[in-house]
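Weekly puzzle thread! Below is a chain. First person to post its structure in token form gets bragging rights.
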Amino acid sequence: MAKRAQKSGLTPDRIITAAAGLLNSGGVEGFSMRRLGGELGVEAMALYHHFPDKDAILDAVADWVLRQIELPPARGGWKARLASICRSIRRTGQQHPEAFRLLMTRRTKPASALPVMEHFLAALVESGLPPRRQIDAYHSLTIFLRGFALFEAEAAAREADYHLPGADVLAEFPTVRVIADKLHPINFDRQFEANLDALLAGFATYAGPR
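Winning reply:
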């Protein structure tokens, strides 16, 4: 089996990259070792030379997605630095939506996760926030990023099919009726920036003088 795998040019990196592409096109539900082997032009059994099972490949893909996040230079004010890493994480989610979703559910290697954590926490330390508030801010930002990435991936597909309810339906909901035509289509860029600005402004109220 090892000789056949070498002859096919199969490597762990090739398998992970192909698996990420397969996930992004068909989701976890459509992922299988047989389909992955087909993408790579090998029998599914050849994959087991590099990974013990499907779960090991999914874990590796989650780790790979984390490593795709580009860490911006550590310069500028703390809010600008936090905004920059948040935008970078969002871009990764946009580029690899299903693989990014997988990242939410799998364990990743500390070597891949720690650089991102360090980038967040270093900026928060410089903010002047008390230590407890730094932890709160870190979790608030990561929860926001995860939730927004999932919302964007799911809602974007539904926006094209959205239809405004009829006037007869909206008549019972006067507050909704006034702004119903402004709620859609969702401007995801605007919503991301508005929520990010609100979070950072809120953190700043707890920051000491710098």
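Puzzle host: Confirmed. Bonus trivia for everyone else. The radius of gyration is 22 Å.
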